[in-house]
UniProtKB/TrEMBL annotation:
Name of the protein in its database record: L,D-TPase catalytic domain-containing protein
Gene Ontology MF, one: acyltransferase activity
GO terms of biological process kind: cell wall organization; peptidoglycan-protein cross-linking; regulation of cell shape
Presence of keyword Hydrolase: no
Amino acid sequence: MHRTRPAPALAVLSISICLLAGCSTGPADTNDRAKAPSSAARATATPRIHLNAADGQSDVSVRRGGRVTVEAGRITKVSLVTANGRVVRGKLSPDKKTWAPDAALDHGTAHRLTVVAAHEDGREDTKRIAFTTLAETDRFTGTFTPDNGATVGVGMPVSFTFDKAITDKKAVESAIEVSSSGKQPVVGHWFGAQRLDFRPQNYWKAHSTVTVRIGLDGVKGAQGAYGEQSRTIRFTVGRSQVSTVDASAHRMTVVRDGRTVKTVPITAGAKNSPTWNGRMVISEKLISTRMNGATVGFAGEYDIPDVPHAMRLSTSGTFIHGNYWGADSVFGRSNISHGCVGLNDARGGGDPGQDGAWFYDHSLVGDVVVVKNSDDKTIAPDNGLNGWNMPWNQWKAGSAL
């Protein structure tokens, strides 16, 4: 018996091959195919909504949490409402690509966020999430020095003190970038769990600019401790001034930009209360201050309410300051202080011709005062802003990165 059906099967096979090969039946088919968007094109055209929080997240940044960004489309609707129904108002950018609240969100507050975005051909994307902002008690803050816009001496480190102990030091340190226009590599060093200083290997280059970018917003520094700071600060390094105090010779030599500008007679710490040796950075300038021996272990030995031209060299109470109560004969001849470096001065500090007034007027916070030939040991690197007393390899070893 003969079978007559192979021919239709061949026809079906031919059609299948044609479809797989993308065969064309003529110019009209080519034009239609060019007009029809591919699946890849359609995927690209769908708006993509980017949020700064995840659904259910409970530690969202109060500054970034409500912000919305859209790619391949424009924002058509944003609704940000707290759990009690309060509407959070915000602004849409002119290109309708971003939306942000008018102010930082409240801490520890639940929010509902709905965003609708559309492509130019009408396709839409919608996202809805619920989140809670970071609680007040779950944040950490870093106070820092120097201030934005300051002009400082060449020895000034960038120093952060955090109000909570940091356990993830790598995360925190990597969120702070310090750079210099002088192209000096800058490295951080941790002094314990709450202090982080940055400096180059050698003093900053004179007249350079240092930029500090703080990107701690949302960074988890420890359990229950998230950062919120996000800003950039810049400060200027002034001329180079390094003053060397020779305690045994009772003299201080002031060198500015490599040139000796003045030699000043001084009095340093007495034999039973010597001045620290080492490189110390002026961290504070006070036109007048009270010095009470009770605050530094010398109770009852002195209490002077109006010490003029005082500049702090250590946290523990070492200053270089004007001295009006000592006889003129002690300056340049003997050491009589309780550890400070004293310069001849007038009571009230009103005589600009006195050495104390001159040095105060010609010093910056961040200038370096080096003490040598004293009977005491070298000051600890974390006693004030005095990390320059630590070898560079040891300094780098204290970085978490």
